[in-house]
């Protein structure tokens, strides 16, 4: 399995002239997965060898602005570049509960319309992921009249046995999210390659003794 990692931004709290806000791209089989999307990420993508149109999945670690304020703008740019593609698989976005509401309201208030399918899958955090008194429950923000117009997607719950959230799995890899402690609930993402059994020519081995 071929994987290529590109650091698009490593700045903390805010971008600098020589360092963008948090963003990391993982390229796999021609597709691009984006981890965090701080302010200016799409500009950093333009400066890199990566093609933003290749992005198929986006993962947000936590809801601090330096990790996701660039997301609405990036989605709008992707919409302009890609145009209407209703038959194409949606861009999947993963992040803490509250992300769906933020994206829907940002795009609705700015009269922005995405011309490609998009799904937002929210991870349900636990109160012990941040200091006492800092935990806020955003799970009810996406209800009411706006809910049918919002993004489709799943609510992902912690698997107590694995102490993680299973995000996706295919024949080559497993991708899970793990709880991290921060000022707001935060998640780390772990991509694990599955074992690849070798192929033995049994007859040839016997001939060689």
Automatic annotation (TrEMBL):
This is RNZ1 protein. PANTHER family: ZINC PHOSPHODIESTERASE ELAC PROTEIN 1 (PTHR46018:SF2). One of its GO terms (molecular function) is 3'-tRNA processing endoribonuclease activity. It comes from Climacteris rufus. GO terms for cellular component: nucleus. InterPro entries: RibonucZ/Hydroxyglut_hydro. It holds the Pfam family Anti-Pycsar_Apyc1.
